[in-house]
Amino acid sequence: MILAFVEHADGQLDRLSAESLALARRLGAAVKTGVEAVAIGGESLAAAVGRHGADVLHLAQLDDGDAYVPDAWAAAVGDRIGALGPEAVVAPGSVRGLEVLAVVAARLGLPLAANCIDVHPGDPWSVTRQRWAGSLLEEATLEGPVKLLSAAPHAFPADEMVAGATDARIEPFAPTIGERERRVRVARRLAPETGGVSLTDARVVVGGGRGVGSAEGFAMIEELAGLLGGAVGVSRAVTSAGWRPHTEQVGQTGARIAPDLYIACGISGAIQHIVGCKAAKTILAINTDPDAPIMAQADYAVIGDLREVVPAIAAALRRS
Amino acid sequence: MEILVAIKRVPATGGRIVLTADERAIDTRHLGFTVSPHEECAVEEAVRIVEAGGGSVTAVTLGPEVATEQLRDAMAIGADRAVLLETDGREWDPMETAAAIVDAVQAQAAAGTPYDLLLFGNEAADTGDYQVPIRVAVALDLPWVTGVKALELRDGVAVARREAVGGGWEEFELPLPAVVAVKEGINLPRYPSLPGRLRANKKPIDRVAPTARPSGPTMSRLRLPREEAHEVEILGRGADAAPRVVEVMRTLGVVRS
Ligand SMILES: Cc1cc2nc3c(=O)[nH]c(=O)nc-3n(C[C@H](O)[C@H](O)[C@H](O)COP(=O)(O)OP(=O)(O)OC[C@H]3O[C@@H](n4cnc5c(N)ncnc54)[C@H](O)[C@@H]3O)c2cc1C
Ligand SMILES: Nc1ncnc2c1ncn2[C@@H]1O[C@H](COP(=O)(O)O)[C@@H](O)[C@H]1O
């Protein structure tokens, strides 16, 4: 059996969990075995989990309800591994999915392959996983009586199965959770700061890099973003210089964005920046250097000094 | 407060990655080396905590001799000493890396000055295994939290904040000693000063031979993701290109009317 750890928000199966169920389904077909899911709380998931191919939904009943208590969640997953003996456990490529599976792996003393984009059961199992946030791929073998894997975000389809879906059968279980597993929990939640267009939701992002030259130089980047109803994004060169806050950074150690249009102004296109913006539908680069690496990613480019080009675009937009 | 901060030497790849002929490593002949921005922030955070409340910071890395360069960088911004868990250059998997760090932490405790706080980057820049800090915490039976973007220490408790799924923040409280994995953005690391660099050269580096216990995943080969070939369309040079840019924006439907 392939066991998929799934998460939910407001009673809905979350997207990354749906993707990891797609990986679980593939593995189930390859090993000729069924798929079952395990979740903390979430009776309402039976139908969705069934449509994504799981026959059974194991529901942990924890004293803390579905409050996030990481070690307790890991103990619950570990409890089902002990009871059911799955061939593999698949987790979503989310913060919680990754850390819960890491605890499971540590407690069982088993290896764990994070952010897989392809998995082939066999002897041994072989996986392809992301390095450098996806700029490089690693082919590796994975050993152990239970294979522990997480699915890289957006590497598998989140679609439901078309045929043969029935609700998953709910099987509640009550794992024993010790006091030590309940030491760390979310003590409080704080509401998001409001105001402005959020970087990850914006349809247009105007990005500024070292080529912008100074904190003051960002006035024209902000103006263009404002005219397009978009958000400002920046490179690490800019946050390291203290010109803009890290919340605006796009890339491997910043935000991953997927706007309709990304305008990269004075950004060279280092791989660590590109992994953050390559999901943009269209990239326009504005750069003095026609050979900058960003040109290999861009759909359109203007060769020139952004201090002339950006205000000229703003002026043309205002006229139009 | 005794703080350990774990960093990993990685190549500073720029515009593209080139692999060695055997496809088992990045060709680093023309590259410099660095650590993850998350780890730079972990070092900065450790130094600030000690500057404010006293104690000392130890930087640790598992890697080849040349990784002393990254330990010196950490000491240049204020770490007091360093430990090199010296390897022969083979890439160690995350399980054995964590086990070696655990051994170093236990050796320190046995010597009478146990660490109160173990700081890590959220994930290594290169392999991105997302597990070393948690494996260390589980082995030492310590409370842990990852993804931390704000950290405060009060009376033996670490209050750690991270971004919550769906917006906003979630806050954890961990009794010390604890394991905390941080993300870039928690602070803005200082640049090392020249005197800082000179002082770093005089600070001690302990060399320890870690125990190898390979367990996987075991890399067989690296490859670059397939890229769809595509051509960039040059819309023009300088300010004269502006009308064409606006035309393109119109066809993309992003111009507000
Ligand atoms: C592990 C790791 C993680 C990283 N994570 C990130 C990340 O999340 N995000 C990120 O952005 N970077 C990240 N980096 C850093 C990354 O490698 C680059 O150093 C960084 O992206 C460079 O920023 P830049 O393009 O603004 O600067 P540069 O590379 O210096 O490029 C400046 C560009 O501006 C152009 N230019 C200069 N003047 C003008 C002008 N007047 N008009 C038009 N063009 C001009 C130049 O031709 C050049 O192409 C990371 C690095 C590492 C090692
Ligand atoms: N070779 C290493 N030496 C020292 N610390 C490491 C090493 N590998 C990983 N770490 C630490 O563990 C964190 C997470 O790494 P990983 O689990 O490999 O993604 C890194 O940011 C480092 O703080």
Alpha-beta classification of chain A: alpha/beta
Strand-residue proportion of chain B: 25-35%
Give the overall pLDDT of chain B as a whole number. Answer: 96
User: What is the rounded Rg of chain A?
Assistant: 23 Å
N-end to C-end Cα span of chain A: 61 Å
Note the overall shape of chain B.
globular
Q: What is the radius of gyration of chain B computed over CA atoms, rounded to a whole number of angstroms?
A: 22 Å
For the secondary structure, the number of strands of chain A is 17
- Report the uncertain regions of chain B: none
Mean pLDDT of chain A: 95
Secondary-structure map:
The complex is a heterodimer of chains A (320) and B (257).
Chain A: E1 2-5, E2 8-9, E3 12-13, H1 15-31, E4 35-40, H2 46-51, E5 56-60, H3 70-84, E6 88-91, H4 95-108, E7 112-120, E8 125-131, E9 136-142, E10 147-151, E11 169-173, E12 186-190, E13 204-208, H5 218-227, E14 231-234, H6 236-240, E15 261-265, H7 271-277, E16 282-287, E17 300-303, H8 306-319
Chain B: E1 2-6, E2 10-11, E3 33-34, H1 37-53, E4 56-63, H2 68-76, E5 81-86, H3 94-110, E6 117-121, H4 132-140, E7 144-154, E8 157-163, E9 169-175, E10 178-182, H5 194-202, E11 205-208, E12 218-223, E13 233-237, H6 242-252
Parallel strand pairs in B: 1-4, 1-6, 4-5, 5-11, 6-10, 7-10
Antiparallel strand pairs in B: 2-3, 7-8, 8-9
Helix pairs in contact in B: 2-5, 3-4
